[in-house]
Design a protein that fits this description.
109 residues, mainly alpha
Length: 109
């Protein structure tokens, strides 16, 4: 946890710890995704019927494919924020994530 004096509020966006090395499309869209999640929660609360029927009504589509460079960047981007759940204390760098990229001998999903 970090604490900042109220006089610093205008300078906070310029502090490096608030500027991630990688900015993915997912992070750009995060606010919209949260808002969509709130709408889904409200719609589920208003839905009459079993949860399974609500999920079917969403017509979700799941795609499974090999990990791309964009997928690996998306993996790396949240690791500094989730370190409290990481028992090793090690952050996955973009270099490490890139080393996990699919090769003729390995696959990443």
């Amino acid at each position: 946890m970090r604490c900042y004096a109220h006089e610093q509020v205008l300078a906070l966006p310029d502090i490096p710890e608030f500027t991630p090395a990688t900015v993915t499309e997912g992070s750009r869209q995060r606010r919209r995704m949260y808002q969509a999640g709130f709408r889904r929660t409200a719609e589920q609360s208003a839905f009459t019927g079993p949860d399974e029927d609500f999920l079917r009504s969403l017509e979700l589509v799941m795609r499974i494919s090999s990990a791309s460079a964009d997928d690996l960047a998306r993996i790396e981007e949240p690791t500094p924020r989730t370190c409290q759940m990481n028992a090793t204390g090690v952050h996955c760098s973009d270099t490490y994530c890139a080393s996990c990229a699919p090769t003729p001998r390995t696959a990443s999903w």
